UniProtKB/TrEMBL annotation:
Name the UniProt record assigns to this protein: Major facilitator superfamily (MFS) profile domain-containing protein
GO CC field: membrane
Taxon lineage: Bacteria, Pseudomonadati, Pseudomonadota, Alphaproteobacteria, Sphingomonadales
UniProt keyword Membrane, yes or no: yes
PROSITE patterns in the record: MFS
Length: 529
């Protein structure tokens, strides 16, 4: 047996026999989760096809549109993902997903009644809070429905909903806007225009899907790994504790409860992030972006310090693990460029290339759904295939998803030919999508079963507060300050690639040993396993 297969053995050994048959119900349940994620990204991504109409009606600029799509959503998605991730580790995950789906669907529908930027921002915040329930619950459920040998594949199938939903949102949004505005050129019922009708149309079906989700059966946590975990007797206690540790200004009281030293560290952290946000505001002239991100980064800092005091094993296996950090931050740079290209693709083609919304739905949105689906499925299968042969196999797939989309993005945003733009956008979407399943499975492999919800929330901190919170805004800001040049704006996000490359090269060396020593490191930190 080779050294690579020996190193991969510990993770496989916890999953039972490699020939175990996965029950049909697991695949059915995974299909329902995919539908949830499809709707998740329809509700999130439809803002792309509506961006130019919102800009015209509300009188906003590209930097605000980037803030609305990215930061306003991302900060609350990330922050509430932490306590909701804890709740996913202790409560009924199926119930949590159903409640979250009902909330974000309601807030999406309410976006359709927005008459100004403030109202739309508040609704967007609500969508972020609701959607924060989805992936921590789903990742944890999938890890209990599927053995380790198939988790990257299962997580990739789930993640395909991201690309399917994001792609068809352009088609759905374009058709609704153009048909509504044609039928009601002066505004329809309740005075709603096309972009408002689109929000309503995609928000309301989620309330029906939330009832379907409630019919799913809750699996026994950790049983498939031979580590069955009993239910928490007071599941909401941990949720409230995490909420108190992550939502300012309660974070100050949470730090004070840990002692004077913790309070001083917390206040110094608050001062640092406040000063950084102030400096960036003065430099860019954009207040809301840096206020939201400053609060978000300070809140995450507070939470991480609190986690270290309350749950040292989880802290050691996430924030205290160089391997874990290199994986999640490395994938965050993939998300940085991918989110910017995904969001700004439709507004760019509409403005710079003169493409109408219906054509964008058919020739950009629908192919993007196919590209993302193919990329994430192929990437997931490749990650599992390589893991069987090399312990760092999944990290190679993340690195592939970082580097290979760069030429395709350059082609898409420098050509004057619409067909070449579509081809470049298709390839960039497919190649970047390949990294997601590998990154998600790698992060799950580096923690214990009881930590998976919080590990997922931490993973999404990187994709949201770095990728979603900064990528689309940077593209919009560069565009707004350079004469509405969206080509320059999107291409400016490629600056993240060298940083991601360094992180993932480090992960190639760190992940194999970390994955093989999860239980030992948890025990050393005080975990009773």
């Amino acid at each position: 047996m080779t050294e690579a297969s020996d190193a991969a053995k510990p993770e496989e050994a916890t999953a039972g026999s490699g020939s175990d048959t996965v029950p049909a119900y697991s695949w059915y349940a995974l299909g329902v989760l995919v539908l949830i994620y499809v709707l998740n990204f329809i509700d999130r991504q439809i803002l792309s096809i509506l961006a130019n109409d919102i800009k015209a009606d509300l009188g906003v600029e590209d930097d605000y549109l980037g803030f609305l799509y990215g930061t306003a959503f991302a900060v609350f998605y990330a922050l509430f993902g932490i306590p909701l991730g804890k709740l996913a580790d202790s409560w009924k995950r199926v119930r949590l997903m159903s409640l979250g789906l009902a909330l974000w669907s309601t807030m999406t529908a309410l976006s359709g009644f927005a008459k100004n930027a403030t109202t739309l921002t508040v609704a967007r915040i609500g969508v972020g809070v609701g959607e924060a329930t989805a992936s921590p619950s789903a990742y944890s459920l999938i890890s209990d429905w599927f053995p380790a040998r198939l988790r990257a594949t299962a997580l990739a199938i789930y993640s395909s909903g991201l690309y399917i939903g994001g792609g068809i949102s352009l088609l759905i949004g374009g058709l609704i806007v153009e048909n509504w505005n044609a039928a009601y050129p002066d505004g329809g019922p309740l005075g709603l225009v096309g972009w408002q009708a689109a929000f309503l149309s995609v928000g309301l079906p989620g309330l029906v899907l939330a009832l379907w989700v409630l019919t799913l059966r809750e699996p026994v946590r950790g049983a498939i790994d031979g580590l069955p975990t009993p239910e928490e007797p007071a599941p909401f206690r941990g949720f409230v504790q995490e909420l108190f540790q992550v939502i300012p200004p309660f974070t100050v009281f949470g730090a004070a409860s840990r002692g004077a030293g913790a309070l001083v560290v917390n206040l110094l952290g608050a001062a640092f992030f406040a000063g950084l946000a102030w400096a960036l505001w003065r430099w860019t002239g954009v207040f809301e972006q840096w206020l939201f991100l400053g609060v978000g980064y300070y809140a995450v800092f507070s939470w991480a310090m609190g986690l270290r005091a309350r749950d040292l094993p989880t802290f050691k296996l996430t924030w205290g693990s160089p391997a874990f950090l290199c994986v999640v931050l490395g994938y965050g740079t993939v998300a940085f460029t991918a989110y910017a290209a995904s969001y700004w693709g439709a507004p760019y083609a509409e403005r710079a290339l003169g493409v109408d919304k219906t054509d964008l739905g058919w020739f950009l949105g629908a192919p993007a759904a196919v590209a993302g689906f193919l990329g994430v499925i192929i990437g997931g299968r490749l990650a599992d295939f390589l893991l069987e042969r090399r312990p760092e196999g999944r990290v190679w797939v993340i690195l592939f998803g970082l580097v290979t989309p760069l030429p395709a993005m350059w082609l898409a945003y420098t050509t004057d030919d619409v067909v070449l733009f579509y081809i470049g956008a298709f390839l960039a979407q497919m190649l970047s999508a390949a990294a997601l399943g590998a990154a998600a499975a790698s992060s799950q492999a580096l923690v214990l079963p009881r930590m998976r919800g919080l590990a997922t929330a931490t993973f999404f901190l990187s994709t949201t507060l770095i990728g979603l919170g900064l990528g689309p805004f940077m593209a919009g800001y560069v565009s707004a300050t350079n004469g509405d040049d969206l080509s320059l704006g999107v291409l400016s996000t490629l600056i993240a690639a060298p940083f991601g490359f360094v992180l993932l090269i480090a992960a190639l060396r760190l992940v194999p040993q970390a994955a093989a020593s999860v239980v030992e490191r948890a025990r050393a930190a005080g975990e009773p396993v």
